[in-house]
């Protein structure tokens, strides 16, 4: 029997994601009341969450660590809130809260929706500013430019934005959210339709080294965070089991290429990813048992994608190693 404290995720028929987020933006000119400023905000993320993983990657690639601090929620949560289980006393050392929910309610006392990560909190007020993860990373690229590290890549080049936006919409609809439509389907028909759409999209993705242009862009970040979770979680837990990622040669090489690129694999914690999905989704996995496999050491094997050309960081440079407090377990 599912644990009621963990919430429920499977819906009758087709899974439909609530895509209404707090759309306040942090911008260079502060037009929404929140100007880009160093040390003013705290990014709250969870390494388990694919949507939050995007912000961790982009923050690393652009070098925003010195100006935008990071609070990490633990991999599991109940139906009310993500919590800061990893910190001493289970309290975020900067925000002084155990439940991320507190920051939402501080600004919106009657907040009616789920408490999601990533979220950005105004440190001085303790209020959530935004949880609009799709806009968040675009703003990191376009509004936080004064604080980018020297050599930061351009992840959202102006001349490619229309193409990136169009691809991002498709990848979200068919892949990022597609795996959830499989896993949280409440009927056979809904599952079958989601399964067909997911693999049709995976089969037609580009075979060039990067999705748009010859450098890493926002589009690669968004696809990567789903692919890196595919075999450890989605293949079994969400029943996306036509093929493992390791059985799709082009996508498997593409994913390894990114994983081995500084800023990508060094944000991924496979242990937290598995714990989150298998423990939290008790209506999908009632026992809460976390599977021991698969073997993940193959993420470090040669991918051969260099032969396709391309320049990962364009005219920029790789980010430096993660700061010690943000390192993840290293694959053997």
UniProtKB/TrEMBL annotation:
The active site is at 49 (nucleophile), 180 (proton donor/acceptor). Residues 307-332 are annotated as: Disordered. SUPFAM superfamilies: GST C-terminal domain-like. One of its GO terms (cellular component) is cytoplasm. The record marks 234, 277 as: Lowers pKa of active site Cys. InterPro entries: Glutathione-S-Trfase_C_sf, Glutathione_S-Trfase, GST_Omega-like_C, GST_Omega/GSH. GO terms for molecular function: glutathione transferase activity. Glutathione binds at residue 82. It comes from the Bacteria. PANTHER family: GLUTATHIONE S-TRANSFERASE OMEGA-LIKE 1-RELATED, GLUTATHIONYL-HYDROQUINONE REDUCTASE. This is Glutathione S-transferase family protein.
């Amino acid at each position: 029997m599912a644990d009621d404290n963990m919430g429920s995720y499977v819906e009758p028929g087709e899974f439909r994601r609530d895509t209404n987020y707090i759309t306040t933006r942090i911008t260079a000119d502060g037009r929404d009341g929140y100007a880009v400023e160093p040390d003013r905000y705290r990014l709250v993320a969870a390494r388990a969450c694919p949507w939050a993983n995007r912000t961790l990657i982009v923050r690393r690639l652009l070098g925003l660590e010195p100006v935008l601090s990071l609070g990490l929620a633990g991999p599991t949560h109940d139906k009310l809130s993500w919590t800061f289980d990893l910190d001493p006393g289970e309290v975020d050392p900067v925000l002084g809260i155990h439940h991320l929910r507190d920051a939402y309610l501080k600004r919106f006392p009657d907040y009616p929706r789920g408490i999601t990560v990533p979220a950005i909190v105004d440190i001085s007020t303790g209020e959530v500013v935004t949880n609009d993860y799709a806009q968040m990373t675009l703003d990191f690229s376009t509004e936080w430019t004064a604080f980018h590290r020297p050599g930061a890549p351009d992840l959202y080049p102006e001349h490619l934005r229309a193409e990136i936006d169009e691809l991002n919409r498709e990848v979200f609809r068919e892949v990022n959210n597609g795996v959830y439509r499989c896993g949280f389907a409440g009927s056979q028909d809904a599952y079958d339709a989601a399964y067909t759409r997911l693999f049709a999209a995976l089969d037609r993705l580009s075979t060039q080294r990067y999705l748009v242009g010859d450098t890493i862009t926002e589009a690669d970040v968004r696809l990567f965070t789903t692919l890196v979770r595919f075999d450890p979680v989605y293949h079994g837990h969400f029943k996306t089991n036509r093929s493992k990622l390791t059985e799709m040669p082009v996508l498997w090489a593409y994913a390894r290429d990114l994983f081995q690129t500084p800023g990508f694999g060094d944000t991924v914690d496979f242990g937290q990813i598995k714990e989150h999905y298998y423990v939290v989704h008790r209506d999908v996995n009632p026992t809460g048992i976390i599977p021991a496999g698969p073997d993940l050491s193959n993420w470090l094997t040669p991918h051969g994608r260099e032969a396709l050309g391309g320049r990962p960081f364009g005219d920029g440079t790789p980010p430096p190693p993660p700061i010690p407090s943000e390192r993840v377990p290293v694959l053997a």
